[in-house]
């Protein structure tokens, strides 16, 4: 069965179809949440809240083909809400080393520098970079998720990468 058929079944109230959709998307959603908060527990909280909100409002999804865009938008909103609720996110190096899903021993300093640099970007640049490089979305998909023109996404991506290069003093991406 295609993904759209599972989405249609979930919209009609099929819990197994919804569960399957969450199962195939959980890793990608977790990576995106982790990119925002840099903390395993907060990322899992965001993921849980996203699944809950998606479950109670799946019947409001009009186009099954936009399921991925829709769930990603819910996740981003939840991540931003958690960041605002907790105030400014403080990145702790010890906390990052505990979360070895993202940070490996070999390049941990470089990855931590990159995560710190991404954290320091304006939200508009940060959102585009996270969706592009952590969620592996295309420019058009990012434009749909963020509800902005493709040209704006390209501009934000280029400016964000330029700021990261300046911050890190090297070619990173």
From TrEMBL:
Keywords: Sigma factor, Transcription, Transcription regulation. Residues 113-164 form the RNA polymerase sigma factor 70 region 4 type domain. Coiled coil: none annotated. One of its GO terms (molecular function) is DNA binding. Signal peptide: none annotated. CDD domains: Sigma70_r4. GO terms for biological process: DNA-templated transcription initiation. Residues 23-88 form the RNA polymerase sigma-70 region domain. Belongs to the sigma-70 factor family. ECF subfamily. PANTHER family: RNA POLYMERASE ECF-TYPE SIGMA FACTO (PTHR43133), RNA POLYMERASE SIGMA FACTOR (PTHR43133:SF51). This is RNA polymerase, sigma subunit, SigV. It comes from Clostridium cavendishii DSM 21758.
């Amino acid at each position: 069965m295609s993904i759209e058929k599972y989405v249609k079944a979930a919209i009609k109230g099929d819990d197994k179809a919804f569960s399957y959709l969450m199962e195939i998307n959980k890793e990608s959603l977790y990576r995106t949440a982790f990119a925002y908060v840099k903390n395993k527990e907060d990322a899992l909280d965001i993921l849980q809240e996203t699944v809950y909100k998606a479950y109670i409002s799946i019947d409001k999804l009009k186009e099954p083909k936009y399921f991925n865009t829709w769930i990603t938008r819910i996740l981003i909103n939840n991540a931003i809400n958690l960041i605002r609720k907790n105030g400014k996110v403080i990145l702790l190096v010890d906390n990052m080393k505990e979360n070895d899903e993202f940070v490996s021993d070999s390049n941990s300093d470089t990855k931590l520098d990159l995560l710190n640099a991404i954290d320091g970007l304006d939200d508009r640049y940060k959102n585009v970079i996270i969706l592009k490089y952590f969620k592996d979305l295309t420019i058009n998909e990012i434009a749909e998720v963020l509800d902005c023109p493709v040209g704006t996404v390209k501009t934000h991506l280029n400016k964000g990468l330029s700021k990261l290069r300046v911050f890190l003093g090297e070619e990173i991406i």
